[in-house]
Specification:
Helix content: 25-40%
Shape: globular
Radius of gyration: 11 Å
Number of helices: 3
Largest sheet: 2 strands, parallel
Oligomer: single chain
Strand order of the largest sheet: 1-2
Distance between the termini: 17 Å
Number of strands: 4
């Protein structure tokens, strides 16, 4: 099981035009069967993780879509 931080770090320096594009990139890198955990939730698929991270303000607007807000990645 991968951690949500792994996805946030994957996003650093990249922007995604849509939620669907980000989910596709996560699946390409981690695999369709991968499940993700965070500090408070376990067992999410890629779509659920993106929704979870969006709700917690981990993304910021980018010129063409959105990217990760590196200042919002906890380091523990």
């Amino acid at each position: 099981m991968a951690h949500g931080h792994d996805v946030l770090h994957m996003m650093e320096g990249n922007s995604y035009k849509s939620k669907e594009e980000l989910v596709k990139a996560i699946i390409e890198i981690f695999g369709v069967e991968e499940r993700f955990n965070t500090c408070s939730v376990e067992g999410m698929d890629a779509t659920e993780l993106v929704d979870f991270l969006t709700e917690r303000g981990k993304f910021m607007p980018a010129e063409e879509g959105f990217t990760v807000d590196s200042s919002k990645i906890c380091n523990h």
